[in-house]
Design brief:
Layout lengths: L6 H19 L3 H12 L4 H8 L6 H41 L3 H11 L7 H15 L3 E2 L5 E3 H4 L19 E2 L7 E3 L5 H9 L4 E10 L11 E11 L4 H16 L4 E9 L2 E10 L5 E10 L1 H6 L8 E8 H9 L12 H4 L4
Parallel strand pairs: 1-5
Antiparallel strand pairs: 2-4, 3-4, 5-6, 6-10, 7-8, 8-9, 9-10
Helix pairs in contact: 1-2, 1-3, 1-4, 2-4, 6-11
The structure holds 3,4-dihydroxyphenylalanine (DAH).
The site of 3,4-dihydroxyphenylalanine has 12 residues, from strand 9 and strand 10.
C-alpha cells in the first residue's frame, strides 16, 4: 500500500483543512448549508478529487485514495452536523428571545398611565364607622345574610303574624318550611347571635348587607348596608344610649355635629327612639333607630333581664356615604359607571 503523499493526497488534505475551516467559520445554518453544498457538490473539491481518481493508475493507490476521499467526506459531514447543532441552538435561543412577550415591560408602561382604584364608597364608610366604634371600645361581629325567621323576626320579639313584621318587606328563600328562611331584612338578628355566643358584658357593632323587596329609586336599593350596635352590661340606662349616640356623632361627623332622639317604635326595643344628626348649619339628617333592648330579646339571646340590661341601635350605611359625598342618586353608587367612580379617586 502506497503511503507516499501524492498531489491528490495533498489536494485532499488541503480541501479537508479548508473545508473544516469554512464549516467552523459559518455564522448561520444558512451559511453552513451553502458551505456544505459547495464543498460536497458536483463542482466542489471533493467531487473534483473523485473524478480524478480515474487517473490514478495503481489500483491499490486508487482504492486508498477513494477511501480517503470518503473519509474526508464523512469528516466534513460530521463537522457540519456538530456545528449545525451549535448554530441551531443559538438561533433557537435568539428566536425565543425575539418572540418573547415581555409582560414586565407591558406592566411597566401600563404603570405610567394606570390609575389607582379605590374602595367602594360604602366600604370606605363601613371601615370608618368600624374605626370610630373601635375607638369607643366596641368589638366587630358579623352574621349570615341568609337568616332564619327565628333570628330575623321571632327572637326580636316578633312572633309569627306580629303586625310589626310588615315594617320589613321581606325576601324569602325557598325552604322545606315555607317562609322559615329569609334574606335578612336588617342587621338586628346579629344581636341575638352575639348574645348567644359571647358572654356579657357586650359592646359590639355588626355591619353587613341587608335585603328588602324594594324597587330601586334615588333613595332606596333592594340591597343595602346597615350597622347594628349592641351594648349589654349591668345597670345600662337610656342615658348611656343617648351619650353613646352623641359621642359617636362627634367622633364620626365632627365636633360641630350633635344628635337628638325622637320617640318611636320598634318591637325589639322598649322604649324605642329614632335618632337624627344636626349639621353645623342647623339642618337635620335622619339616621336610624335605637332603644333599650326588650326583655324578650335578652331572653332569646339567653340572658337574664333581671341581671343584664342594654341598648341597641341600627342605621343605614349607604345613606351616610351618600350624604358624605353629596351623591344625589343612591343607584349611581352601584352603577359601576367609571364617570361616577372617577369623581371619588
Ligand atoms: N333594625 C331596624 C331597621 O332595620 C333598625 C333598628 C332600630 C335597629 C332600633 C336597632 C334598634 O338595633 O334598637 O329598621
Amino acid at each position: 500500500m502506497s503511503t507516499t503523499p501524492t498531489s491528490e493526497h495533498q489536494q485532499l488534505a488541503a480541501a479537508l483543512t479548508e473545508g473544516l475551516a469554512l464549516i467552523a467559520a459559518s455564522g448561520s445554518s444558512e451559511d453552513l448549508r451553502g458551505v456544505m453544498s459547495s464543498l460536497t457538490g458536483k463542482k466542489g473539491p471533493i467531487a473534483a478529487l473523485k473524478s480524478s481518481l480515474g487517473k490514478v493508475a495503481d489500483i491499490e493507490a486508487r482504492k486508498e485514495l477513494g477511501q480517503l476521499v470518503n473519509e474526508a467526506l464523512v469528516t466534513l459531514q460530521q463537522a457540519s452536523e456538530a456545528h449545525s447543532r451549535t448554530l441551531r441552538a443559538g438561533e433557537f435561543a435568539a428566536q425565543i428571545a425575539s418572540e418573547r412577550l415581555d409582560i414586565s415591560e407591558v406592566a411597566m408602561s401600563a404603570q405610567a398611565t394606570r390609575r389607582r382604584g379605590r374602595m367602594h364608597l360604602v366600604t370606605q364608610a363601613t371601615e370608618r364607622l368600624e374605626d370610630v366604634f373601635i375607638g369607643l371600645g366596641f368589638q366587630i361581629a358579623e352574621g349570615p345574610e341568609v337568616e332564619t325567621d327565628f333570628y330575623n323576626f321571632e327572637a326580636l320579639n316578633m312572633p309569627p303574624s306580629h303586625p310589626a313584621r310588615s315594617m320589613w318587606d321581606t325576601l324569602f328563600i325557598e325552604s322545606d318550611v315555607e317562609g322559615s328562611v329569609v334574606l335578612r331584612t336588617h342587621t338586628s338578628p346579629v344581636q341575638i347571635r352575639v348574645m348567644q355566643d359571647w358572654p356579657p358584658p357586650i359592646y359590639a357593632v355588626m355591619p353587613g348587607r341587608v335585603f328588602r323587596k324594594e324597587t330601586p329609586d334615588a333613595t332606596h336599593m333592594p340591597v343595602f348596608h346597615q350597622i347594628e350596635g349592641l351594648v349589654i352590661d349591668r345597670g345600662i340606662t337610656f342615658a348611656d344610649l343617648a351619650g353613646t349616640i352623641e359621642s359617636f356623632t362627634k367622633a364620626f361627623f365632627g365636633e360641630g355635629f350633635t344628635s337628638r332622639l325622637r320617640p318611636s317604635y320598634f318591637p325589639f326595643t322598649e322604649p324605642s327612639a329614632e335618632f337624627d344628626i344636626r349639621r353645623p348649619d342647623g339642618s337635620w339628617i335622619e339616621l336610624g333607630g335605637c332603644g333599650m333592648v326588650h326583655p324578650h330579646v335578652l331572653r332569646a339571646g339567653g340572658l337574664d333581664p333581671d341581671e343584664w340590661s342594654g341598648f341597641a341601635f341600627g342605621f343605614g350605611i349607604d345613606r351616610m356615604a351618600k350624604e358624605r359625598h353629596g351623591v344625589d342618586d343612591i343607584r349611581d353608587m352601584y352603577s359601576d359607571d367609571i364617570r361616577f367612580t372617577e369623581q371619588f379617586s
